[in-house]
Q: What sequence folds into this?
């Protein structure tokens, strides 16, 4: 099915006969594959008698050679999948198989894209970026401190450089435009953080997605914000370059050197929020973050510090 898609991606008309000849199948087999394309990948194909088949809009697919050419400083191998359960899951399996880090896993779609605590990340085909960069970290808890916040900052900066100027951060690791989520970050760790471990920097960015019924909160995409489509290969290359700069700063100077830049971009700085931890709720005012990336809240007049992957922030109605 994806070989057929690659033949059609130029957005031109192709006759059933030519497609069948290229694929080595009959015209009726081509017809069946086209129906699968529409049903499974949500793509729409124009069928015109006498001319053949045409994708309703041309597609640019992910291309590791193009990414490498546009980001010569990122010397990590890029593994591109047409479809995968989750790029983070594949990254973890690849570490298990012994592949040497750093390496990057990308996919055109995820069938079980994940957010925190097993929540689902909507991942339609060829519209967005699903990105998992694997790093090997040796003997340094310090190198993990605030790391997911640093990745958020790098994603935000990349989007700004591509013209999405209103983008900002929400603790711990969402990237928003106003109240709408445009990107999410999920770090996963394997190994011993005090010795040698691997960390998967998982990033989902809504790029060209314009419609979905799969997301139960406010969201947006680069295309919805700017009114234009983006080349995902260019975005991936750009993100790699920006991440390298931020990860380099983090490694050399530690998170404290990045803390104030993060706070300056925190959209909820000074706001009245509720911090949700399972069934518990703590109301307070956002003071900022500490030198390890933990959230500082004023609760009943006293500063308190919170950290951990199970915490969610919500704006209070009176904020
Ligand atoms: P928190 O507010 O606790 O940080 P969250 O709601 O942002 O949590 P995450 O685990 O970061 O949760 O992301 C998963 C959630 O994001 C989903 O439950 C869904 O509401 C939303 N979501 C899923 N797919 C997308 C997407 N492609 N773009 C934006 N939001 C999405």
A:
């Amino acid at each position: 099915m994806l070989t057929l898609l690659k033949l059609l991606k130029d957005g031109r008309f192709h006759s059933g006969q030519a497609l069948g000849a290229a694929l080595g199948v009959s015209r009726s087999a081509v017809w069946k594959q086209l129906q699968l394309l529409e049903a499974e990948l949500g793509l729409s194909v124009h069928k015109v008698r006498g001319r053949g088949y045409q994708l309703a809009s041309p597609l640019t697919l992910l291309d590791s050679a193009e990414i490498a050419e546009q980001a010569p400083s990122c010397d990590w191998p890029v593994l591109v999948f047409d479809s995968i359960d989750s790029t983070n899951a594949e990254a973890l399996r690849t570490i298990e198989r012994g592949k040497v880090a750093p390496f990057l896993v990308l996919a055109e779609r995820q069938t079980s894209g994940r957010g925190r605590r097993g929540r689902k990340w909507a991942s339609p085909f060829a519209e967005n970026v699903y990105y998992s960069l694997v790093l090997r970290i040796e003997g340094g808890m310090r190198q993990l401190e605030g790391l997911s916040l640093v990745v958020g900052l790098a994603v935000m900066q990349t989007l700004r450089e591509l013209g999405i100027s209103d983008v900002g951060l929400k603790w711990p690791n969402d990237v928003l435009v106003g109240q709408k989520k445009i990107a999410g970050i999920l770090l996963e760790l394997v190994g011993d953080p005090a010795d040698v471990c691997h960390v998967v920097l998982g990033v989902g960015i809504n790029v060209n997605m314009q419609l979905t019924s799969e997301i139960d909160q406010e969201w947006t995409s680069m295309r919805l914000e700017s009114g234009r489509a983006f080349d995902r290969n260019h975005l991936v290359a750009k993100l790699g370059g920006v991440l390298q700069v931020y990860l380099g700063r983090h490694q050399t100077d530690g998170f404290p050197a990045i803390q104030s830049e993060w706070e300056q971009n925190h959209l909820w700085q000074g706001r009245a929020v509720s911090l949700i931890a399972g069934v518990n709720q703590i109301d307070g005012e956002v003071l900022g973050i500490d030198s390890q990336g933990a959230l500082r809240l004023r609760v009943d007049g006293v500063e308190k510090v919170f950290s951990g992957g199970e915490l969610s922030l919500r704006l209070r109605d009176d904020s």
Remarks:
- The CA atoms of residues 135 and 147 lie 12 Å apart.
- The chain has a mean pLDDT of 93.
- Residues 232-253 form the longest helix (22 residues).
- Residues 115-116, 119-122, 174, 181, 184, 204, 206, 215-217, 219, 312 surround adenosine-5'-triphosphate (CB under 6 Å).
